[in-house]
Hints:
mainly alpha
Amino acid sequence: MFLIAPAASKRAERAQGRKLSWSDRSSSLAGASALRGVLAIFVCLAHSWLIFVYPIEDGGSAASHIFVIGARLAVIGFFCLSGYLISLSMQENLIRHHGYFSASEYFISRVFRIAPPLLFSLILVAALGGMLFYIGMSATPLSRAAQPTYDPNLLGQLKSMATLGILGDVTGGVNGPLWSLAYEMQLYAIFGLGCAAIRSRIGTIYRVGSLLAALALAWLCFLFEEPAWRWLHILCIAAFTFGWIGFRVLPQANLVASIGIVLICFVGSIALFCSLPGAAVARLNDLDFVLGQTVFAIGFCVLVSMLATRWVAPIRLAQTGAFSYSLYITHFPLMLCLFFIISHVTGFSLAGGWLFGIITVPVAILFASAVSFMIERPKQQRTLLINTLRHVFLRGEAAAELSQPKVCDR
């Protein structure tokens, strides 16, 4: 009895810890998912302005500052949210495996989460590009267009996917917003390898190998990075790291102190960006402006932790986070295709640009929600793959049995 009771007690503690963690997960995901959906919709709106309005206006309006700077800050917010949610995912991984980290489960889940929708976006861009080329509308006469031609580089995108964005071009020359996805894939891999080096069951040699692999990947990312983008890369790493730390240390933070930090960081960032002249918007990747965005990232991470643990988001708003990834990777090529067609058929005025820009946002949202429903469901994808492989192997075994000569017992 003295040997059995402690074991039973430990199992009960683990079960209780698992129960609490899954409860925390549901509350954490509600606010975080709603916030992610709001950011994705704002980025979509900003890109609709860039595609349909910017080519006609002079670019010096207040809208240019709101959408250019707002879209950048929204992307930084995405990195904060990704760090927060990947920290949550790692904690669940540790709970399921009794304090040890399963690297295989982590990386497989990331692949199923990212790859299918991304591959669909490549197919979508190729199909839209082929259609525009066939009807003779793959280039636009407007000189200030977001993209002068609709000519996707699929080989460059596939190379980028295979190398985690180190080589190739994940945007393919058409889907510009995907630059941030390359950074996210790298961070998922680096943090996963780092966690495997510290908390996995594998032996010392494999742990050292995981740590060296994480360091080597980080070094390669900077080695092949364009010099003009390096400070932006560092900013994204910092925002992701802040989000990862925020999940672990901020949930129990004092509410008044959290609100104070958020206000100070946001006011400081807004004051910096409001002081920018129009031409300085192009300097968002320079060190001095990156420091201002880093201050915003700190405040946003505190906000994420505060909302995730204290905000009961409306169901409809929280559901927008379910298709935020599909929206992020499909809205730009879809809007760009519509822009190329409209610019050839009817032409543009400033009022027409705003009208088409507003109309295409709900179109992109509806399209992304359909893509999410059909493709972006990792658990269902894994089940489908396992069942398919099982069916193939079982069918192969049945065929092998039929091909063998039957031996009569008589």
